[in-house]
Amino acid sequence: MASDDESREEPREEFVEQDGVGVTDQLQRLWTPHRLAYIKGENKPDGDGESGCPFCRLAGLDDESALIVARGESVYAVLNLYPYNPGHLMVVPYRHVADYTDLTAEETAEVADFTKHAMRVIRSVSGAHGFNIGLNQGVAAGAGIAAHLHQHVVPRWGGDSNFMPVVGHTKVLPQLLGETRTLLADAW
Asked: Which parts of the sequence bind substrate (predicted)?
């Protein structure tokens, strides 16, 4: 039987040399080039109108293509393309409105109902321990798309803030968005 010292795996000494990438080291890289579009703000609407608004555009697509989980009378639930955690979705009014105070009573009620239902669904399929729920009102408050109101529903688990976002500035998601959409839509 091997001792603990003998059974430990030796650190990998394999390095891939590539001209121009810097000093060779033992770190492995987790590349997420799809995030660069978000960082650069590509395809982000540049005005306050409906023209070019991704939320207005998504509402006109089929659910699978748009990653829409469910539709209501005045709002829909859609997965976030750049999720903080698996299952991160947004409740979005169909009407192009920027401020929460501009919602009608019916829209406000349906945003609340969809948010509650989303929490139940996410808990049932993933066992979320808690949620961050919020509206970022305006660019100064962190709204990525300030011209069209959207409420985030972010599932959380004890200890889900591991070393990757803190040290690697990277979020590891265990499931493709299309698979997550199907799972949530089927449970909705």
From this structure: 80, 152
Q: What is the pLDDT of residues 74-85, one digit of tens each?
A: 999 999 988 888
Q: What is the distance between the alpha carbons of residues 51 and 54, in angstroms, rounded to a whole number?
A: 9
Query: What region, left, alpha or beta, does residue 55 occupy, with left being phi > 0 and alpha being psi -120 to 50 degrees?
Result: alpha
CA-to-CA distance for 171 and 165, rounded, in angstroms? Answer: 5
Was domain 4-187 assigned CATH 3.30.428.10?
yes
Q: Which of 73, 147, 57, 78 is nearest to 105 (CA)?
A: 73
Residues of each annotated binding site: 80, 152
Flag whether pLDDT at 143 surpasses 80: yes
> Which residues are documented as binding site for substrate?
80, 152
Could you tell me the pTM of the whole model? 0.69
Catalytic residue (one of 117, 148, 150, 169): 150
Closest CA relative to residue 58, chosen from 177, 146, 148 = 148
